[in-house]
Design brief:
The protein is α+β, with helices and mostly antiparallel strands. It has a single domain, classed as Alpha-D-Glucose-1,6-Bisphosphate, Chain A, domain 4 (2-Layer Sandwich), CATH 3.30.530.20. Helices cover 29% and strands 37% of the residues. An eight-stranded antiparallel beta sheet has the order 1-2-8-7-6-5-4-3, with helices on both faces. A hairpin with a 3-residue loop joins strand 7 and strand 8. Helix 1 packs antiparallel against helix 2. The longest helix is centred in the C-terminal third of the chain and has 14 residues. It is globular, with a radius of gyration of 16 Å.
Length: 217
Amino acid sequence: MGRMRPTFGFALGCAALSLGIALTPVRSALAGVDGGTFTPEEWRKLDAGETVIRPATRKQNGLRLMGGSSWQVIDAQPASVWRALLDTPRYHKMMPEVLEARLVHHEDSERTVFMRQGARGVVEARYYLKVRVYEDRHDITFSVDDKKPHELLKAAWGFYTVRPYKGGKTLLAYGVMADIGEGLLAGVMRNEVHDWMLRTPWMVKRFLEGSGRRLYR
């Protein structure tokens, strides 16, 4: 059976509109999400259960942005992966360094999520995300709500896209661009943060193929 090559180009326009930000940094996060652009080596990694990662950095409008895109094949049905991504209280099992996540507002397809992230007792970022859920096509976009407190995080936005993969599996695409500030700790930790922020699809895979396997059937 040939590879299923999902296309995600439509998510670009929706992300730009829903986040209300300049198109250029969104394009950096979404670059290459069309499955047709994967190299043979990247297809090999996906089929082997490895994470495909494309890091990116950019300076724009006074922001020092880092992030990129990553993809992961998960041995679970797309409906299960989708339900997991909407399970806010369990984000600490699916996203790096998350200490607390709470859904504080939910109306139709719009959500507000409080996040506390970092190293407990050392450095913690507290912020609110504006989340837009596109139920019909299994896409999610998010951005930091700059009208609410957002300690240690100047800006961030990104997306999740859930698509079917061969063998009843799921291809999860993830993109993020963020400015974590210019403080001493941010400078020291920048490379480490850049690495783990793109590991989210791998953590979703680990959770859904492990302790979370039976939660979302």
